Structures are given as structure tokens and as C-alpha cells.
Amino acid sequence: MGLRIAAFAPQHEANVLALSMRSWAPVFEKLRPVVQPCVYETFYPDGWQVRQAADIRQFLAIARQNTWLAVDGDAVLGRVGIRLHPADRMGEIHIIAVDLAHQRRGIASALMNHAMMQMRGTGMRIVMVETGDDPGHAGSRATYERAGFQRWPVACYFLEL
């Protein structure tokens, strides 16, 4: 594989959206049964795909310069987007996905390493990534823990009104 990390360009948007939907489908399939129905329906009233696509488009519209792709030839295999929080000197891996057909090949690690290098270059001292504690996100948690991330004790509660 001739994997390289490249800057996002507008012509990649359709590929980024498609690979994101493919990579997140199994995550949402496992998430839905373990989340309170009122929470799931509030976050995803038109389906998770509609919300995720809108979130990705919005991020790319405001932060495309902070988005990188894992590519092999013309194929987009994964992507990462970061947010910078200068007041805290903290970078955030905001959005990451690797196409299902290319997972477990070190692509997420390569994307995270590139993102962290970019953050260091802007003076950030720490990096944060958030993910779910549900079965669908088990692979994500394992990737972050292998990379040396340590879990921060946070609790998030919901109550239907």
C-alpha cells in the first residue's frame, strides 16, 4: 500500500462523506439498541446518516484547512479533522474515520500521528479525543488507548422531558 497523508481539498468531499457513512454504519447499528430511544431520536430524528453528513459538511466548511486524508493513489481510505483550543493549549481530534475495507491496517494511527504533529506545530500541549462508551465504539477506544490516550472520568446523563 502506498499510503500517504494529504491535505483535504474540496473535490474530496463526496469521497469523505461516503467513506464516513460506510465506516460509521456498524457503529450506529450497535449504538442504537443501547441508547435511550428519546436520546437517539432527539439527536437523529431523520436518521444518523442525515445528522452525520450535515456535521461533516459543516466541519469541512469551517475547518477544511484542519482536515487531512489517508490516500493510496486516488483512493481516499480515511480522514481526520482537528480543532484547536489555544486558550487551553489543547488540540482535539474532532472527527476521524477509516473506510471499512481498510480498517486494522494502521491508517487511524497514521492519521492521528499526523494530526498530533500538526497540533504540536501550533503550540498545543495536550490532545483530546472523545468517543462513545457503547459497544459500537469499542474499536475506537482500543485505538486511542493503544496510542497512549488515557480515559478522563466523565459522566453524561440524559432525562426525557
UniProtKB/TrEMBL annotation:
Q: Give all residue intervals belonging to the N-acetyltransferase domain.
A: 26-161
Q: Which Pfam families match?
A: Acetyltransf_1
Q: Which domain of life is it from?
A: Bacteria
What UniProt keywords are attached to this protein's entry? Acyltransferase, Transferase
Sorted alphabetically, which InterPro entries does this protein's record hold? Acyl_CoA_acyltransferase, Bact_Acetyltransf, GNAT_dom
The terms under GO molecular function for this entry are: acyltransferase activity, transferring groups other than amino-acyl groups
The protein in question is named GNAT family N-acetyltransferase
The species is Salinarimonas soli
Lineage here is: Bacteria, Pseudomonadati, Pseudomonadota, Alphaproteobacteria, Hyphomicrobiales
